[in-house]
Amino acid sequence: MQRSSQLGKKYNIRLTPGKLEKPTGRAKMRSRGERNSMAIQHQLDPELAGQETRVGPPPLYTVLLLNDDYTPMEFVVVVLQQFFAMAHEQATVVMLKVHTEGRGVCGVYPKDIAATKVDEVNRFARQHQHPLQCIMEVQE
Ligand code: TYC
């Protein structure tokens, strides 16, 4: 892992972690972005020099399956086992949730991994002539 001082040198910015707050009785629920944000201090652009910009972690994506009337239940269970590493029992629970509620979560991933899973599942379904739809949504 590269240290933030080295990263700062590489990109010619100064990185300072989010300030720690004094503990106050109850823990406050903070978003992933708030917990992990960094301040970058601009050093090159004279218009931005001295200013700080808060940058958060990259967003995560939820991968979902949608219900349809034709894809066999056992095929969906196989998809959940093969592409999302679920055990048969867990895959059955998720498949039945999609079947009854219209959609269900397969997993949460960084953007490129989510996009690859979506593509692989949709190709696999088409290969087997099933209309199963796999989609991704950015996590709020
Ligand atoms: N509704 C389908 C059926 O009755 C089963 C199914 C479940 C299809 C989940 C798609 O994502 C899905 N055969």
What does this structure look like?
It is a single chain. The protein has 140 residues and is of the alpha+beta class. The protein is 40% helix and 25% strand. The protein contains five helices and six strands; from the N terminus they run H-E-H-E-E-E-H-H-E-H-E. The strands form two sheets. It has a three-stranded antiparallel β-sheet. Helix 3 (73-84) packs across helix 4 (88-101). The longest helix has 17 residues, at 111-127. The protein is elongated and about 60 Å long. The model has no long low-confidence stretch (mean pLDDT 86). The site of L-tyrosinamide has 13 residues, from strand 4, helix 3 and helix 4.
List the helices and strands and how they pair.
Elements lengths: L3 H8 L1 E5 L14 H5 L1 E5 L9 E4 L4 E7 L6 H12 L3 H14 L1 E8 H17 L5 E6 L2
Antiparallel strand pairs: 1-2, 2-3, 4-5, 4-6
Bound molecules: L-tyrosinamide.
Bound molecules: L-tyrosinamide
Rg of Cα set: 21 Å
- The amount of helix comes to 40-55%
Largest sheet: 3 strands, antiparallel
Q: Which segments are poorly predicted (pLDDT under 50) over 5 or more consecutive residues?
A: none
Give the averaged pLDDT, no decimals: 86
Helix/strand-derived category reads: alpha+beta
Beta-strand share of residues:
25-35%
In angstroms, what separates the terminal alpha carbons?
Answer: 27 Å
Shape: elongated
How large is the count of helical segments? 5
Strand order of the largest sheet: 1-2-3
Can you write the helix and strand succession as a string?
HEHEEEHHEHE
Count all strands and give the number: 6
